[in-house]
């Protein structure tokens, strides 16, 4: 085979190789599935609380079992609202940082999706010191719009405190990056030009901040039936992007990851009760429970269920690798019928 043929590898094949690399591990950890917010479009049911001690031990033991063979460990914190279980985060993050220090060649990165209510400068600085240096915080527009959809569990508004926290991070020297995820809806679209201009002028001179525009979509929550959503091709969205894309600092609404983490074999979600999953959206989907993490750090995995999330690679279907959850919920049981290979 010629050298040219050897290098003629498609982007799809490169992503597939990356997704199956055994020297890379991506853990999505839910330290609690409770939340201090009740966003009107949320799909979670908050049925599970804080991560159990035996699950925390299991996560640390899993890191101990795997770190020597890894080139990169990525830990993503999700919830619920992860900052409600900050002690769990600090315990695991400290353990992961120690594993990196004693393992030559191990790269370690960590990020957090948070509502920002508890993420002031001191908290961000502490977490950054433990390797958590990327935060995603959502805003639904100016206060009068944000406080209508992103409300506390007691019904109170949240915008002013989040904004104050973001300013404290901007004004400090914490070594971290913040992705401001700005949600777009038919209700807030008219105020977005002024709001995004304010965001740009307030934060985007600081290279640690970026903006990502995201349409609110129906994800299976209780409010889906009454929710109005924007069309993905709405030309007004493109005009809004122009406001925050400046000197390469914005992030386009349309620059989605080509492959979802849920389609990657080396990515696992660990829920607060120890169940293993693939997708942070389909938490109530039975097929999203693919196993369990044991206290000693070993994994009990239902191989047929796990393979369902990876079948886009086998069929070479980019839709299935871009969003396996959306694909199988849209197409129904047919997609879930994966024929077992001989000897499997």
TrEMBL record:
Organism of this sequence: [Actinomadura] parvosata subsp. kistnae
Domain Radical SAM core: 21-255
Keywords: Iron, Iron-sulfur, Metal-binding, S-adenosyl-L-methionine
Gene Ontology MF annotations: iron-sulfur cluster binding; metal ion binding; oxidoreductase activity
Keyword Repeat: no
Tree of life domain: Bacteria
A Pfam family the protein falls into: Radical_SAM
UniProt protein name: Radical SAM protein
Sequence similarity: Belongs to the radical SAM superfamily. Anaerobic sulfatase-maturating enzyme family.
Annotated coiled-coil segments of the chain: none
């Amino acid at each position: 085979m010629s050298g040219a043929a050897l290098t003629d590898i498609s982007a799809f094949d490169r992503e597939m190789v990356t997704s199956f690399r055994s020297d890379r591990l991506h853990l999505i950890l839910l330290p609690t599935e409770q939340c201090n917010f009740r966003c009107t479009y949320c799909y979670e049911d908050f049925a599970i609380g804080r991560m159990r001690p035996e699950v925390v031990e299991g996560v640390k033991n899993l890191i101990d079992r795997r770190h020597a063979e890894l080139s990169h460990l990525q830990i993503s914190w999700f919830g619920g609202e992860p900052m409600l279980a900050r002690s769990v985060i600090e315990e695991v993050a400290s353990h992961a940082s120690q594993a990196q220090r004693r393992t030559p060649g191990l790269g370690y990165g960590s990020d957090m999706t948070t509502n920002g209510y508890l993420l002031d400068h001191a908290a961000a600085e502490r977490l950054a010191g433990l390797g958590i240096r990327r935060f995603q915080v959502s805003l639904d527009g100016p206060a009068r719009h944000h406080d209508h959809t992103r409300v506390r569990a007691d019904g109170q508004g949240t915008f002013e405190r989040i904004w104050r926290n973001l300013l404290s991070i901007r004004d400090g020297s914490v070594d971290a990056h913040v992705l401001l995820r700005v949600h777009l809806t038919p209700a807030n679209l008219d105020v977005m030009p002024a709001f995004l201009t304010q965001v740009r002028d307030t934060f985007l001179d600081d290279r640690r901040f970026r903006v990502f525009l995201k349409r609110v979509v129906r994800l299976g929550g209780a409010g889906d039936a009454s929710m109005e959503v924007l069309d993905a091709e709405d030309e007004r969205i493109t005009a809004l992007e122009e406001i925050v894309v400046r000197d390469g600092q914005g992030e386009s609404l349309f620059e989605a990851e080509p492959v979802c983490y849920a389609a990657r074999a080396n990515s696992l979600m660990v829920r607060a009760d120890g169940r293993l999953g693939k997708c942070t959206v389909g938490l109530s989907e039975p097929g999203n429970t693919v196993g369990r993490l044991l206290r000693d750090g070993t994994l009990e995995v239902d191989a047929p269920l796990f393979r369902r999330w990876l079948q886009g690679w086998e069929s070479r279907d980019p839709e299935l690798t871009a969003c396996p959850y959306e694909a199988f919920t849209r197409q129904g049981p047919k997609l879930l019928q994966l024929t077992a290979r001989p000897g499997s």
